[in-house]
Design goal:
Elements lengths: L1 H5 L6 H17 L19 H20 L18 H11 L8 H16 L2 H13 L4 E4 L15 E5 L2 E12 L6 E7 L10 E7 L5 E6 L8 E12 L3 E2 L5 H17 L7 H10 L6 H30 L8 H22 L15 H14 L4 H12 L21
Parallel strand pairs: 1-4
Antiparallel strand pairs: 2-3, 3-7, 4-5, 5-8, 6-7
Helix pairs in contact: 2-4, 5-6, 5-7, 7-10, 8-9, 8-10, 9-10, 10-11, 10-12
The protein binds flavin-adenine dinucleotide.
Length: 415
């Protein structure tokens, strides 16, 4: 109750006038979302290669438009091509954009991961070279972190980088690398001191994805799309000035990227919403069933709670009252649970038809969303790992026991 009284549900006069400007811009350049298969912004899920290519092209065009008209990177400093406004302005923009058929799709993720990391840890040259083309959508990025033996326990990773004159030579394998097949650059973590404990001997690099020795192999998911990839690195040479931060200090840099990642996922646009589930319930004639109505109410409630959580964070950002800010892990887990409940319900409402890849709407939208829920629940840290974070960081519970934190990495037991 104390928090309810403290959270602003209304915009400040400045944000209200900014919101009106945002709407005017969006009205001029995008159509309102219809919530069905005619929305191009839903096609990030397309299995047809031509539709998928068209989606990527439109994402790039949308980002370029935002950049050219001064709507990209609202909270980024002006020297990197942004507008130097507050995070609250970006939140308002995202809230309004959710109603329109427009997205920068995969480019948004790269901006959220690479942008803050280079702003905090990058050299002046790196910031100058990479940030503006990242924001304009001219260059795209991927994240080369996870490995077959290192996911939740990322610091256990085994990809090696060895110094050779003015270059580093990298060998190893990454996996689950989203959009690597389309990326110009990657952010890469590799082990530079195997004698140090696992968190201590890592270095963070920028790698040109067209470097000799990089092989990208798409991984086809259950939905039939290849969203992510395996990436093999064989004697890949990276110039020494492509190190971000200090050599062997890469974990500090990595933490900045990981923090941005979970808040990015919890704030991500959603392909489905209450209106879409309700439309399916109506189409299937299920809206009179009291149990269905109860579950629909839960979808609506979750959506409202998520919006209030966003407002609470917006208040924290606007007023500088950090005690109001919700932990990123709480937001991420609530977001993914609400998503799972919504998509499972929609498929159940379809009854036996829900088992068909192409349902009566002919597009398999819920079937795709149902399978895709696991991407959000695992990517950016699994639900279990985020619960551990909440236990340790929000509730102050004892740290999870670990036997290898202080042991040199090359003496640890690895899978
Ligand atoms: C759609 C998608 C996109 C992705 N994109 C990228 C990308 O672009 N770049 C990249 O580097 N990676 C990417 N990933 C990888 C992602 O970061 C990892 O999948 C994730 O960190 C989990 O690691 P893992 O798959 O190795 O699972 P594991 O870590 O092996 O976990 C297996 C199971 O054990 C549980 N578990 C593990 N440790 C603990 C613990 N300490 N306490 C309790 N339970 C635990 C997990 O919750 C999980 O259920 C992506 C993943 C997905 C699904």
């Amino acid at each position: 109750m104390a928090y309810a009284a403290a959270v602003d549900f209304e915009d400040t006069p400045e944000l209200a006038s900014f919101r009106a400007e945002v709407r005017a811009f969006l009205d001029e350049h995008a159509a309102l979302r219809r919530g069905d298969g005619s929305d191009w912004s839903r096609n990030g899920a397309a299995t047809d290669p031509e539709v998928a290519a068209d989606f990527r092209r439109r994402c790039v065009a949308w980002q370029r438009l935002l950049f050219e008209q001064g709507w990209a990177g609202l909270a980024w400093p002006e020297r990197f091509g942004g507008r130097g406004l507050s995070a609250a302005h970006q939140i308002v923009f995202n809230q309004e954009l959710a109603a329109y058929d427009a997205t920068a799709g995969f480019l948004t993720a790269a901006q959220a991961l690479v942008g803050p990391t280079l702003m905090v840890h990058g050299s002046a040259e790196q910031q100058q070279r990479y940030l503006t083309p990242l924001l304009s959508g001219e260059e795209s990025w991927c994240q080369l972190f996870s490995e077959p033996g290192a996911g939740s326990d990322l610091a256990a990773l085994a990809t090696r980088a060895v110094r050779d004159g003015d270059e580093w030579v990298v060998n190893g394998q990454k996996v689950w690398t989203s959009s690597a097949q389309h990326a110009d650059f990657g952010i890469l973590i590799a082990r530079t001191d195997p004698d140090a404990p696992k968190h201590a001997g890592l270095t963070y690099f920028i790698v040109d994805m067209r470097s000799p020795g990089i092989e990208v192999r798409p991984l086809v998911q259950a939905q039939g799309v290849a969203h992510f990839n395996e990436v093999f690195l064989s004697d890949v040479r990276i110039p020494a000035d492509h190190v971000v931060g200090d050599v062997d200090e890469g974990w500090k840099v990595t933490r900045t990227t990981l923090r941005s990642e979970s808040s990015m996922i919890s704030g991500a646009g959603q392909a489905s919403n209450f209106e879409a589930v309700l439309a399916t319930a109506r189409r299937c004639g299920r809206t009179d069933d009291p149990l269905v109505r109860q579950e629909l109410a839960r979808v609506a409630t979750n959506e409202r709670v998520l919006r209030w959580m966003g407002w609470r964070n917006q208040t924290a950002v606007m007023t500088g009252r950090r005690e109001l800010a919700l932990h990123g892990s709480l937001l991420k887990n609530f977001f993914t649970r609400a998503l799972s409940h919504r998509v499972d319900l929609a498929v159940a409402l379809e009854g036996p038809e829900g088992m068909l890849w192409l349902d009566a709407e002919g597009e398999g939208f819920w079937q795709y969303q149902c399978l895709n829920q696991f991407a959000s629940r695992i990517g950016g840290g699994t639900e279990e790992v985020h619960r551990n974070n909440l236990g340790e960081q929000a509730l102050g519970l004892p740290r999870e026991p670990s036997t290898d934190r202080e042991v040199p990495w090359n003496q640890t037991v690895r899978s």
